[in-house]
TrEMBL record:
<dbReference type="InterPro" id="IPR001412">
    <property type="entry name" value="aa-tRNA-synth_I_CS"/>
</dbReference>
<feature type="short sequence motif" description="'HIGH' region">
    <location>
        <begin position="11"/>
        <end position="21"/>
    </location>
</feature>
<comment type="function">
    <text>Catalyzes the attachment of glutamate to tRNA(Glu) in a two-step reaction: glutamate is first activated by ATP to form Glu-AMP and then transferred to the acceptor end of tRNA(Glu).</text>
</comment>
<feature type="short sequence motif" description="'KMSKS' region">
    <location>
        <begin position="240"/>
        <end position="244"/>
    </location>
</feature>
<dbReference type="GO" id="GO:0008270">
    <property type="term" value="F:zinc ion binding"/>
</dbReference>
<dbReference type="GO" id="GO:0004818">
    <property type="term" value="F:glutamate-tRNA ligase activity"/>
</dbReference>
<dbReference type="InterPro" id="IPR049940">
    <property type="entry name" value="GluQ/Sye"/>
</dbReference>
<dbReference type="GO" id="GO:0006424">
    <property type="term" value="P:glutamyl-tRNA aminoacylation"/>
</dbReference>
<keyword id="KW-0067">ATP-binding</keyword>
<dbReference type="InterPro" id="IPR020058">
    <property type="entry name" value="Glu/Gln-tRNA-synth_Ib_cat-dom"/>
</dbReference>
<feature type="binding site">
    <location>
        <position position="243"/>
    </location>
    <ligand>
        <name>ATP</name>
    </ligand>
</feature>
<dbReference type="InterPro" id="IPR008925">
    <property type="entry name" value="aa_tRNA-synth_I_cd-bd_sf"/>
</dbReference>
<dbReference type="InterPro" id="IPR033910">
    <property type="entry name" value="GluRS_core"/>
</dbReference>
<protein>
    <recommendedName>
        <fullName>Glutamate--tRNA ligase</fullName>
        <ecNumber>6.1.1.17</ecNumber>
    </recommendedName>
</protein>
<feature type="domain" description="Aminoacyl-tRNA synthetase class I anticodon-binding">
    <location>
        <begin position="322"/>
        <end position="466"/>
    </location>
</feature>
<dbReference type="InterPro" id="IPR020751">
    <property type="entry name" value="aa-tRNA-synth_I_codon-bd_sub2"/>
</dbReference>
<dbReference type="InterPro" id="IPR045462">
    <property type="entry name" value="aa-tRNA-synth_I_cd-bd"/>
</dbReference>
Length: 472
């Protein structure tokens, strides 16, 4: 391309940053970064009744969590309303727009009549060529654009290919409401022009809007940006994505325990591909991304794939970082702030813990035993393992490891193997009661490593809790 692209993400702050919007932002960000261009953020807050500061904050927070940094200042559309209105009045002065005095009741009647005649329900152009002198007294008009009535509006789309709209299907849209406020269609076109946006990448549900906006660009005498309409995201059943499929806010995925790098990778693969690659780092994505590899069919959201991908990134993540991420949840579960030794145990145990987890929530749940208050609560299976013969083996193992120095996984395992040889018990029959006593569960990282991480004092203390009620 002749110059670096300028893309934009332009959400309406009427709710959370949903997963479809996050993918749109990602594709715009990657396209700009791939070509050394600019990625802008615009908040389309013209709907003053539904736009909230909380929603704007959530959008910022969601983009920042995903690592999608924008360039320059954020543009707030509402602050530019006077500029939008000025362009509508220019079209009016040039004869490319006109005042329409139709009442809501008249518009309803037009739509009903069109339906009765088997036509699409739309405005019929009643005031398009009428003498303004016929205007009813005391009625504030809207300003409508004079859309072309013959021929076609053609969009050369980078994803969808050539898309044609008969102009007979596109009516004279409102540019300024009767109270003088601009409509979404006008505001978007003026803002994209003034921000020098070169590429508009958005969902294919905007295709009809693009046809109307193309007409408006031409009426204003401006060059159109290049359009790319990406297919929507559907659920696994092929139906439109809903909350039951995973249509949650980005903040919800963070709270569910997904890593931002995993979400970037997963959203990238929803409708875009690079050969058979599934694991794609952000740097690789920037290097490889192009709109030519966006498919035309709707992508399907799949939690199982997201979980597996997140599990991969957990295993690749720095242990200290993971410990910091799960520390607040563990402190809440423990009912106390975590200590330095707690953090040290978390980091030292992380290699074994993260190998079994697919989300940070699972990781935190599996690490709770490291910071749990004594005596540990035991699940039913664990309690069964430290009863009867299991209790006898546990007592024998405690005696064997009580004086170990250093208290290492290798030395503890050697003691357990020695006990296995002298008693004829399998190593697992000795290790499992130890796991139950030290973790309160039957699943954990390698238990001898767990004992080393807990240390001699804590490990022997937990054994004492089980064997003699905590008495030394």
């Amino acid at each position: 391309m002749s110059k670096p692209p300028i893309t934009r993400f332009a959400p309406s702050p009427t709710g959370y940053l949903h997963i479809g919007g996050a993918r749109t932002a990602l594709f715009n960000w990657l396209f700009a970064r791939h070509f050394g261009g600019t990625f802008r953020l615009r908040i389309e807050d013209t709907d003053r009744q539904r736009s909230t500061q909380d929603a704007i904050g959530k959008i910022f927070e969601g983009l920042q969590w995903l690592g999608l940094d924008w360039d320059g200042e954020v543009v707030h559309q509402f602050s530019r309303a006077h500029l939008h209105a000025a362009e509508a009045r220019r079209l009016l002065a040039e004869g490319r727009a006109y005042h329409c005095y139709c009442s809501p009741e008249e518009l309803t009647q037009m739509r009903e009549q069109a339906r009765a005649e088997g036509k699409p329900p739309r405005y019929n152009g009643y005031w398009r060529d009428r003498d303004p002198a016929e205007a009813p007294a005391g009625v504030a008009p809207v300003i409508r654009m004079k859309a072309p009535r013959e021929g076609e509006t053609v969009i050369q789309d980078l994803v969808q290919g050539e898309v044609r709209f008969p102009n007979t299907e596109l009516d004279d849209m409102i540019l300024l409401r009767s109270d003088g406020t601009p409509t979404y269609m006008l505001s978007v076109v003026v803002d994209d022009h003034d921000m020098d946006i070169t590429h508009v990448i958005r969902g294919d549900d905007h295709l009809t809007n693009t046809a109307r906006q193309t007409q408006l660009y031409l009426a204003l005498g401006w060059d159109c940006p290049i359009f790319a309409h990406i297919p929507l995201i559907h659920g696994p059943d092929g139906a439109k994505l809903s909350k039951r499929h995973g249509a949650l806010g980005v903040d919800a995925y963070r709270d569910l325990g997904y890593l931002p790098e995993a979400m970037r990778n997963y959203l990238l693969r929803l409708g875009w591909g690079h050969g058979d690659e599934e694991i794609i780092s952000t740097q690789q994505a920037i290097e490889w991304f192009g709109l030519e590899n966006v498919g035309r069919s709707p992508a399907r959201f799949d939690y199982a794939k997201l979980d597996n991908l997140n599990g991969h990134y957990l295993r690749e993540a720095d242990n200290a970082r993971l410990a910091e991420l799960i520390a607040p949840k563990l402190a809440e579960a423990a009912g106390r702030p975590l200590t330095g030794p707690d953090h040290d145990r978390l980091v030292r145990s992380m290699a074994g813990l993260k190998a079994r987890a697919k989300t940070l929530v699972q990781l935190a749940d599996s690490a709770r035993f490291l910071v749990a208050s004594r005596p540990l609560a035991m699940d039913a299976k664990a309690a069964g393992l430290v009863a009867g013969i299991g209790r006898e083996r546990l007592a024998a193992l405690r005696a064997a490891i009580a004086g170990l120095a250093p208290f290492t996984a290798t030395a503890i395992e050697a003691a357990a193997r020695g006990l296995s040889e002298t008693t004829g018990a399998k190593l697992g029959d000795i290790a499992q009661p130890l796991r139950a006593a030290l973790t309160g569960t039957t699943v954990s990282p390698p238990i001898f490593e767990v004992a080393e991480v807990l240390g001699a004092e804590e490990s022997l203390g937990r054994l004492a809790d089980v064997l003699d009620g905590g008495r030394p």
